[in-house]
Specification:
single chain, 188 residues, alpha/beta, Rossmann fold, two-stranded antiparallel ribbon, globular, binds 1-O-pyrophosphono-5-O-phosphono-alpha-D-ribofuranose, binds orotic acid, glycosyltransferase, magnesium, OPRT, orotate phosphoribosyltransferase activity
Length: 188
């Protein structure tokens, strides 16, 4: 089956608006306070929406050359695997591996921080479900570089327009792409 990028983008946005936006006072990962929250796990772990996430994120990053995708567990994990499956479903496109960056290195087993097929010497994309300060994505950028990868960019489903773009570009030295911003989501 072929999928229209515009239809996917529209349908995914509708899913996010209907199911993931939560209004109310919340404390964020960074310790900052906010008046709204995006629970994108309701989207990336949805059987209906996850395939759209994969296709929209592949399309968003179509001009970049990379062959593995991952980020800081756990928000990034279903984004990366959605992209892996979307790439696998496309007979014309190249295969894509996924990887998981642990929040801390493991102290037993192989004691790795980055799990999955080796990313050493490979061009990789760092993903997130959403970014606020960009700190989680930057943590993953650093871990991927320490594992020997070349990071080509960071891409997120939804950006909150709270400084992540500037920080990732300045401190990470890579482009930052997002599929939807607050205006798209209807939040200001
Ligand atoms: O840009 P930042 O300020 O780093 O915030 C964004 C991060 O916050 C959320 O994860 P959270 O830390 O809640 O952990 P989780 O992925 O384990 O749910 C989200 O999935 C991002 O990883
Ligand atoms: O900054 C965060 O922690 C954060 C913001 C948001 O909207 N959604 C989320 O899962 N985390």
């Amino acid at each position: 089956m072929t999928h229209s990028v515009e239809v996917d983008r529209r349908n995914l946005l509708q899913q996010i608006q209907e199911r993931a936006i939560v209004h109310g006072r919340v404390t964020l990962s960074s310790g900052k306070e906010a008046d709204w929250y995006l629970d994108l796990r309701r989207i990336t772990l949805s059987g209906l929406a996850a395939p759209m996430v994969g296709r929209v994120m592949l399309n968003l990053t179509r001009d970049l050359a990379y062959d593995a995708v991952g980020g800081l567990t756990m928000g990034a994990d279903p984004v990366a695997t959605a992209m892996l499956h979307a790439a696998a479903a496309d007979d014309d496109g190249p295969a894509l591996d996924a990887f998981v960056v642990r929040k801390q290195g493991k102290s037993h087993g192989l004691q790795q921080r980055v799990e999955g097929p080796s990313i050493q010497g490979r061009r990789v994309l760092i993903v997130e479900d959403t970014s606020t300060t960009g700190g989680s994505a930057l943590d993953a950028v650093t871990a991927a570089r320490e594992a020997g990868a070349e990071v080509v960019a960071v891409a997120v489903i939804a950006d909150r327009a709270t400084g992540a773009a500037e920080r990732i570009q300045a401190d990470g030295g890579v482009p930052y792409l997002w599929a939807y911003g607050p205006n798209d989501l209807g939040i200001s």
